[in-house]
Amino acid sequence: MDATFTAEQEEIRRTLRELLLKRCGPEEVRTAVRTEGGYDSALWETLAQQLGLPGLAFPEAYGGVGCSVTELALASEELGRSLAPSPLLATAVLAAPLLLALGSEDQRAALLPRIASGELTAALAVPGASLTIALGLTGDNRGDWAGGGRAGGVQARRTDDGWRLYGQADQVLDGHSADLLLVAAHTGGFARSRTLLFLVRDSPARDSLGRDGSGGSPGVTRVRLTSLDETRSQARVQLRDVEAELLGEEGESSDVAGVLASVGDSAAAVLAAEAVGAADRVLERTVEYVKQREQFGRAIGSFQAVKHRLADLYVQVQAARSAAYYAAWATAAGEERVGGLALAQALEALRITSSEAVQLHGGIGFTWEHEAHLYFKRAAGDELLFGPVHRLREHAADAARLFGGGEVAV
């Protein structure tokens, strides 16, 4: 493994950091999350059309840049530093790789270039609150999380006119604003139970007040949810006898669960890098603050107890960064089951660092208006969505068979 970044990778980081420093400060973030889409559409257009971020890990044949998960992780690290709200995670990290892996050639040719250009955004909708299970991060995703033939979940049935979907998906990242929904649904009943992915091409409609409502397709209802982390928009998507298109060729058998787990592993590596970027930034701001705040006639950063706390945080962030970089490299190289552990370490580092930041900022740190709370909410929100940390580690240990037969593997 060569741990040195290429000139191209360094340029991606530098360009993104300069852009986000100018256009995505704390006030810009707060303004963006209160828009209809939940993000700054002008900034997204710049990221897509000028920097090619949505298509960074796409093949050039589909309008992409032709890079790998490593470059996508480095870009996400910079987005994490500023907590920039954008459809990148939902579109380019979760939905597009599934379309690339399972879609037919016609589907890929029609949709991927539009995603790469930023014209089309997409979201992955899984039943209930099963996102982390569906991606194979905290459990086996070959179970009945999609419905299992029982009431609940999302059910798909074949008709003379095509496929129809019925059910509900919660925790759909950017589900209120995405133009394309990739819906995981159960089909086949009890005898031939299986989970398939379907495309719902639907542009969300909003009322005169900008509230989310019925989508463009009959039977689709989207409701933007109030989430702990405003920078990570979530929605509930209800499907009532909705026309859908099977992802892939009719009659072909595909390992949907395996592809979801593979995408989950690469998504975990990208999320780990994003969390490291957030942790690094909040630590930077905390160090700057303790150099300025004075107590007993001297900067509080000069007290040994504060130095020790900051040193511990620095070590934890650097360890998480090493794990995230390795996971991004290993995923790009074809290794599996490394993203979950890196994500666990990064989420833990972000949670501890943001908590300490609130405390070390003193009275001002406990006010909701301070930016430290944005990072604290991101840490808590990501653990709710993709964790918790102990579950990520437990599943990774089970998958690697570290503990078996009552003995510790050595």
Structural notes for this entry:
The protein has helices at residues 7-23, 26-33, 41-50, 69-82, 88-102, 105-116, 131-134, 256-292, 304-332, 339-360, 362-365, 372-386, 389-399, and strands spanning 122-125, 154-159, 162-173, 180-187, 194-201, 204-206, 212-215, 220-224, 234-246, 294-295, 298-299, 403-404, 407-408. With 410 residues, it is α+β, with helices and mostly antiparallel strands. A hairpin with a 5-residue loop joins strand 6 and strand 7 (212-215).
* Strand percent estimate: 15-25%
In helices, the fraction of residues equals 40-55%
Briefly note the structural class of the backbone. alpha+beta
Overall pLDDT score: 90
What's the helix-strand series? Answer: HHHHHHEHEEEEEEEEHEEHHHHHEE
Shape: globular
Radius of gyration: 22 Å
**Sheet with the most strands, sense and barrel status:** 7 strands, mixed
End-to-end C-alpha gap: 24 Å
| Helix count, DSSP H or I runs of 4 or more residues | 13
> Which spans have pLDDT < 50 for at least 5 consecutive residues?
206-214
Instruction: Give the strand tally.
Output: 13
Question: Which SSEs are present, and which pair or pack?
Answer:
Layout: H1 7-23, H2 26-33, H3 41-50, H4 69-82, H5 88-102, H6 105-116, E1 122-125, H7 131-134, E2 154-159, E3 162-173, E4 180-187, E5 194-201, E6 204-206, E7 212-215, E8 220-224, E9 234-246, H8 256-292, E10 294-295, E11 298-299, H9 304-332, H10 339-360, H11 362-365, H12 372-386, H13 389-399, E12 403-404, E13 407-408
Parallel strand pairs: 1-4
Antiparallel strand pairs: 2-3, 3-9, 4-5, 5-9, 6-7, 8-9, 10-11, 12-13
